[in-house]
Amino acid sequence: MLTVDFDRLGFQPGDRVLDMGCGGGRHAFELYRRGGDVVAFDMDADELAGVLELFGAMKEAGEVPEGAEADIKQGDALSLPFADGEFDRVVAAEVLEHIHADVDAIKELVRVLRPGGTLAISVPRWLPEVINWKLSDDYHNAEGGHIRIYTDHELVDKVTKAGRFNDGTPGDAMVFEGKDYAHGLHAPYWWIKCAVGVDNDQHPAAKAYHKLLVWEIMKQPKVLQYAGKVLDPLIGKSMVLYFRKPAGSSVTATA
């Protein structure tokens, strides 16, 4: 279940790509399958071990093209262990809403992206997320849970102003190129979960809707694909923003 549109990101086979906060690896796997040179980055060693294992299984099964590469790296989003401009594409899907110092994390994403490269950031969309917070304190008060709700204007502002030029003057390091919404079918599921209890997976309504989502993911029926396209711009659970680093940029991270 992908959130980021890799065609809109401008991904090409052979691109070096960072999936920052990769979690279980869903975007990293697809990038690898498409022929990328992929680094799956996260702070959770157990998650990364599972990602590395599946990278190996994909290669053994012949699911990746010749020349594709994939590896994992553990670390802190506030201090990425990569060189300036190392990556052609950077993905940060559903991670910034968990990070207290989100501006510092964004600066690191900008730093490791090459001039001319592109960045995709997805976060929970404002309206569906507000409803979740109103319905349940447990939804966002859990350890490692969501600590903020972004508007599109706030996040665009934070990313476009995430760096400074080498002479120290402030500048709009990144160019905002547009936004999408995704997972319209998933927002009602979380509203149900928040209403009946986020851990109450056996509630009849939550259980029934979960079966619907499994059907969507596994079988991809046409009717649900169409429903998703209709619902995504209306109540899509995720907002995806796309940015480009100017080709002539000399932007670096700042403290």
Automatic annotation (TrEMBL):
Domain Methyltransferase type residues, every copy: 18-121
The secretion signal range is: none
Pfam families for this protein: Methyltransf_11
In its UniProt record, a GO molecular function of this protein is:
methyltransferase activity
Enzyme Commission number, as recorded: 2.1.1.-
User: Which GO BP terms, alphabetically?
Assistant: methylation
Q: Which UniProt keywords apply?
A: Methyltransferase, Transferase
Keyword Calcium, does the record have it?
no
Per its record, how is this protein called by name? Class I SAM-dependent methyltransferase
What organism, scientifically named, is this protein from? Nocardioides plantarum
